[in-house]
Amino acid sequence: LLLVERNQPQFDRLENLYIDHNSIVTLKLSTHHTLKNLTLSHNDWDCNSLRALFRTLTQPAVDDADQHCKIDYHLEHGLCCKESDKPYLDRLLQYIAMTSVVEKQRKKESCSAINAIHSVQSLVHFIKQQGDVPLQGNAQLEAEVNELRAEVQKLTNEQIQQEQLLQGLHAEIDTNLRRYYLPKDELARPSDSLNKLFTHLKERH
């Protein structure tokens, strides 16, 4: 659970709401709510949203609190939150970075250029699938998605440049293999062909 902004009619009729231990960034309640018990700890609060939320709450209604906060988070009204101008984009980039670290640890190898390209391609494909679907009711989220689309386009252009550079390097390796009359294994990786070329040159000298 990440975003809770369109549940005000349902929440206004509740007396007890337990939403601790989620990943909630924003929550909106009306001033007419009837909540008597509310738990909010262990979430991923945006500080601005949290301040706005507490303007509609009375302190006794909140039944829990955080004790320790992660790096870049601090306590506000007894709950850990993070200051961010673009909370949705910030959490998305944070999630991507965290996923990348987990993948590196799981595979026990550094992230290769090919993996990075595939990640960008997947993200581009997802954005294209979404098309121009309007994100009604949340101008901030729409602005952040547009910014993300621009960033994806930038990464795509960089990917194309890297692929062109890579193709040029592969062609250069093939040229030197022919130059020194070395057989090319079509199933070998370019790095293996390059090592073969280096070995041959070392033996010549």
TrEMBL record:
<protein>
    <submittedName>
        <fullName>APL1A</fullName>
    </submittedName>
</protein>
<dbReference type="InterPro" id="IPR032675">
    <property type="entry name" value="LRR_dom_sf"/>
</dbReference>
<keyword id="KW-0175">Coiled coil</keyword>
<dbReference type="InterPro" id="IPR048481">
    <property type="entry name" value="LRIM1_APL1C-like_dimer"/>
</dbReference>
<dbReference type="Pfam" id="PF20733">
    <property type="entry name" value="LRIM1_dimer"/>
</dbReference>
<feature type="coiled-coil region">
    <location>
        <begin position="138"/>
        <end position="172"/>
    </location>
</feature>
<feature type="domain" description="LRIM1/APL1C-like dimerization">
    <location>
        <begin position="86"/>
        <end position="205"/>
    </location>
</feature>
